[in-house]
Write a structure and sequence with these properties.
The protein is mainly alpha-helical. 39% of the residues lie in helices and 4% in strands. It has helices spanning 4-15, 24-30, 37-45, 74-83, 96-99; strands at 22-23, 58-59. A two-stranded parallel ribbon has the order 1-2. Helix 2 crosses helix 3. The longest helix is centred in the first third of the chain and has 12 residues, at 4-15.
C-alpha cells in the first residue's frame, strides 16, 4: 500500500501532458516534499500502473534520462518520449526549452 507522499507523486505524474517532461525534484515539490526527489524515483520504480502513470516523463533536472529506467532502460524511455513529440539536444538530453512542463494546475505547459 502506498503512503500519502507516494499517492501524491502518482497524481502529479499523471498530470504531466504528452510531449512534456518534469524533473524528479519538480514532482517532489508539487507532491508536497521539495526534498523528496529520491523518493519520487523510488515511487516511480514501483509504478503500479505503467500505462496510466507516465513515469517515462520524469527526468533529471539537466534533461538527462535515467539509465536505470525501470521499464526497459534509457533507450526505452527515450523512444516513449520521442513517440510523444519530445525533442532532444545533440548531447542526448531533453530539450527543456521546448518540452519542460511548468506544473500548471490545469496540466498545461
Amino acid at each position: 500500500m502506498a503512503n500519502e507522499f507516494t499517492k501524491r507523486i502518482y497524481e502529479v505524474v499523471q498530470k504531466i501532458p504528452r510531449g512534456c517532461v518534469a524533473s524528479y525534484g519538480q514532482v517532489a515539490a508539487l507532491a508536497g516534499n521539495p526534498r523528496g526527489a529520491r523518493g519520487v524515483g523510488f515511487a516511480l520504480h514501483r509504478n503500479p500502473l505503467p500505462g496510466v502513470i507516465p513515469c517515462h516523463r520524469v527526468i533529471f533536472k539537466d534533461g538527462s534520462l535515467c539509465s536505470g529506467f525501470a521499464f526497459g532502460g534509457e533507450g526505452a524511455q527515450r523512444a516513449l518520449l520521442e513517440a510523444e513529440g519530445v525533442t532532444f539536444l545533440p548531447d542526448g538530453r531533453v530539450d527543456l526549452q521546448k518540452c519542460a512542463w511548468l506544473g500548471a494546475p490545469g496540466g498545461g505547459k
